[in-house]
Write a structure and sequence with these properties.
The complex is a heterodimer of chains A (425) and B (370). Chain A is mainly alpha-helical and 425 residues long. Chain A has 16 helices and no strands. Chain B is an alpha+beta fold. Classes of the chains: A mainly alpha (425), B alpha+beta (370). The complex binds adenosine-5'-triphosphate and magnesium ion.
């Protein structure tokens, strides 16, 4: 009995750790999107703010990156799903002895590093471009084209795997039945096979879009004039990270949750409808007066979806009227006081030490507190805010240095006016 | 009655690599007939049907439908409709859409289709079920929908590939009569495939018995049952007792067979083999269990069989006696139950009598597996 409860306890413990590991980073990142400091951090909590979302939506490069990613995503979806479908159909038609080899060949792109695919796409199309005698601004060297082609080389394989799984459950007799009833091959494909494949095509499309959206290492060679979101983010992070990126992450997380709930709600509704149909009488079915279950009835996913939607509306509503200026000012004031106090404290310690030194007559000792502030920040380029390390002395020294242009590292991502230089820390 | 469109197979060969699935089949199917191919599993029945419907090109020979050579004509251009072994109803379409799929292909309006579907649903006794999905029907109902779907295409020849094999016994028997009724109502040629001899005998005008790619006999059910032309046909269709031996003497259309175990017995030579059985050749003789009667003990002659009884059973409509037979196989005798008294013979020798007309002999050949 005791043993058993211990087992249960450790199981829960394990689950907690597992989910913390999975979701913890996302939760923390989401929280930092609402905290006012200029470096994404959860503690200390300063002020609730929505300004990072504003900063995100006024950042031309991020917006442009999102737009490019969406363009590339749609192109990749269309290309990969059609190539994947063709590959999957081919697998069922091909001579059985060749099937295993064919499968290996067509799966290989998944195993090849994305970097290699990116470089080879670039080289290959460049060669073709030259062979055709086209200039550097031709369609074949267009970043959008190259990125879509490059990503599709391996995303098509993912799509094929998804489609093959569904296709294996397809009874070829259905196509034969359609042919037998007078359909042409094209009609049999469109009216029988395609509807059957629809769910798998939808999953493959979602998968392809997500894989394309998050791709970096292939795209980095091919993007040309069309930097995608991942490329933009990577370039930005080089100069320092701001909570605007957390805001973007938060939006993506919320969209994902929405999509997942909508999907679940839809599945449940279908189940309920199927059940209702099964219980319906013939008259009800043929007259179309069958009582369909309500959207929310016994469908937790639909309820959750509505709740999340309401919460989103409330948050967005709050964000438009809420102004954290007062809070930020308070925090600044408080910080300034704290910093002053600390500087005073340090001065006092220094004086004390100097006195002691003088007393001990050891005047040659170096001054560690003064040499550190100048050397510390430059090496990291502000990527790692030194304050996060929260050594007492460093924090103090940072505070000393702050007025002399700490913000510059962030570029003009956000309005420097709203951020007083001292408040950054 | 030759109203419908006939089907002819001429010297039809179908090979898969080195494997010969159909060997030199010659069949004439009259228009409007209910014709069955009967044979054990794997003998090539489906293969023949696929050649008729156009999914397989013959390796040799011709398929004629209504006298026209079908070479190079695809399944969607032939006047046939196939009912698949597993039905192959479109799972995502409603019943009425399934039934009228062929009309959709021809570009009929939804209203026309709906109307025709309702007519056909009435015919197959499923009125008003058009809005269901195939998964929402029972096995027998799905069966009927498959028939309606094929009929909706208005084929000249309907091909059915063991359509009843997935159903339970009761339903199967019910569907037999229903299929036969439908065929008589629409008056088109039905080609039916089965390995169940009961189905073939009850429904068909004519039956082709197949064995491993070869057609052994084509005739109506009564002829096949009473006058089989090969040992395989005799042993495959219905229960039969076999006696092996040699032809001792041929007397017109009767022969005296020197059997291995039961002495000399007389039998009728099956009509396909008359004039072909020579003295001294190996022969087989078949007598049905119900063709025997009990004879007085000790009676002997060329139409009496004596053997030891292994066991007996009572089947309701008959008493079954199992006696020592040839090659480890028991000799089965069925005495109809007409209310007479019946004593136990287990362990005793008894003598049976048959009429010469009820014993048939053919040249020795391969028997159907049990
Ligand atoms: N596509 C094919 N390739 C190779 N051999 C095949 C092919 N189709 C059928 N065969 C072979 O041909 C033979 C006849 O097959 P067929 O499907 O016609 O049998 P059947 O009489 O319909 O049997 P069942 O009653 O089990 O359906 C079988 O031995 C089978 O292995
Ligand atoms: Mg078959």
């Amino acid at each position: 009995m005791k043993n058993f409860s211990f087992m249960r306890l450790s199981l829960w413990f394990y689950l907690a750790i597992f989910f913390a590991y999975l979701l913890g980073p996302l939760v923390i990142m989401s929280v930092t999107a609402f905290n006012s400091p200029g470096f994404p951090r959860m503690t200390p909590w300063e002020c609730l703010t929505f300004e990072w979302f504003g900063a995100l939506f006024s950042d031309e490069r991020i917006l442009n990156g999102i737009w490019n990613s969406i363009l590339v995503g749609f192109g990749t979806v269309i290309l990969s799903v059609s190539m994947g479908l063709a590959g999957a159909l081919m697998l069922t038609q091909i001579w059985p002895k060749l099937r295993a080899t064919y499968y290996t060949v067509i799966i290989a792109p998944i195993l090849i590093p994305g970097v290699v695919l990116g470089i080879s796409t670039l080289v290959f199309w460049d060669r073709i471009n030259r062979m055709l005698g086209l200039g550097a601004d031709s369609f074949l060297s267009n970043g959008l084209f190259l990125t879509i082609i490059g990503q599709s080389t391996f995303i098509a394989s993912y799509c094929m795997l998804v489609l093959v799984a569904r296709l294996q459950r397809y009874d070829i007799a259905l196509t034969e039945a359609a042919l037998d009833l007078g359909a042409t091959h094209a009609q049999a494909f469109r009216k029988v096979l395609l509807p059957f494949m629809k769910p798998a095509i939808a999953s493959a499309a979602v998968l392809a879009f997500l894989a394309s959206f998050e791709n970096y290492n292939t795209t980095t060679f091919t993007f040309g004039e069309y930097p995608t979101l991942t490329i933009e983010l990577a370039q930005k992070v080089r100069y320092g990270i701001t909570p605007a990126i957390s805001a973007l992450a938060f939006i993506i997380v919320v969209l994902t949750v929405f999509a997942a709930l909508a999907n679940e709600a839809n599945l449940r509704r279908k189940e309920l409808v199927a059940k209702a149909r099964k219980e319906a009488t013939v008259e009800e079915l043929s007259s179309g007066r069958i009582r369909m279950p309500g959207f929310l009835s016994s469908n937790w996913a639909a309820v959750a979806l509505v709740v999340v939607a309401c919460a989103t509306v409330v948050v967005v509503g709050t964000a438009t009227v809420y102004s954290p200026q007062q809070c930020i000012a308070d925090v600044q004031e408080q910080k300034r006081l704290e910093t002053e106090e600390r500087i005073n404290e340090l001065r006092r310690q220094r004086d004390l030490r100097r006195q002691q030194q003088q007393e001990a007559e050891q005047g040659n000792a170096a001054e560690p507190n003064q040499s550190q502030p100048t050397g510390n920040n430059s090496g990291f380029g502000n990527v790692f805010a030194p304050s996060a390390l929260s050594g007492e002395e460093e924090e103090a020294s940072e505070a000393e240095e702050a007025p002399s242009g700490n913000n510059s590292g962030f570029g003009n991502v956000f309005d420097p006016g709203s951020l007083n230089s001292g408040q950054d820390n | 009655m030759s109203a419908g469109v006939g089907v002819d197979l001429e010297n039809l060969w179908i090979r898969f690599g080195d494997f010969v699935a159909v060997r030199d089949a010659n069949v004439n199917i009259n228009g409007g007939d209910f014709f069955s191919f009967l044979g054990p599993s794997g003998c090539g029945k489906t293969t023949i049907l696929r050649a008729v419907s156009g999914f397989l090109e013959p390796s040799d020979g011709r398929v004629l439908i209504g006298g026209n050579n079908m070479k190079g004509i695809g399944p969607n251009k032939r006047p046939t409709a196939l009912i698949f072994q597993n039905l192959a109803l479109f799972p995502l379409m409603k019943i009425w859409e399934n039934i009228t799929f062929s009309m959709e292909i021809r570009g009929a309006s939804a209203k026309e289709r709906r109307k025709r579907a309702d007519e056909l649903l009435d015919m197959i006794a499923l009125p008003g079920q058009g809005d269901k999905l195939p998964s929402e029907l029972s096995g027998g109902q799905r069966q009927r929908v498959a028939i309606a779907r094929a009929l909706c295409a208005e084929p000249d020849v309907l091909l059915l590939d063991e359509p009843l094999s997935a159903l339970d016994l009761k339903l199967r028997q019910h569907m037999r009569t229903e299929l036969r009724e439908i065929q008589q109502r629409v008056g088109i040629t039905f080609i039916y495939i089965t390995h169940d001899q009961g189905e073939a005998l009850t429904m068909s005008d004519n039956i082709a018995v197949m064995k491993a790619g070869v057609i052994d006999q084509i005739a109506d059910g009564k002829t096949i049952y009473n006058d089989p032309s090969t040992a395989f046909a005799a042993s495959f269709v219905g229960e039969n007792n076999v006696f092996r031996g040699k032809v001792k003497r041929v007397m017109g259309n009767e022969a005296l067979i020197e059997t291995n175990r039961s002495g000399d017995l007389v039998a009728r030579i099956s009509s396909a083999n008359q004039g072909r059985m020579k003295e001294g050749e190996d022969a087989m003789m078949f007598i049905r269990p119900e063709a025997f009667t009990l004879a007085p003990e000790g009676a002997s002659g060329d139409h009496f069989v004596t053997a030891k009884v292994n066991h007996e059973e009572f089947e309701g409509n008959a008493f079954n006696i199992f006696m020592e037979g040839e090659g480890g196989k028991e000799l089965k005798v069925s005495i109809p139950n007409l209310g007479q008294s019946f004593e136990d013979h287990t362990g005793q020798n008894i003598t049976l009598e048959y009429e010469t007309n009820n014993a048939v002999c053919v040249p020795a050949g391969e028997l159907a597996a049990e």
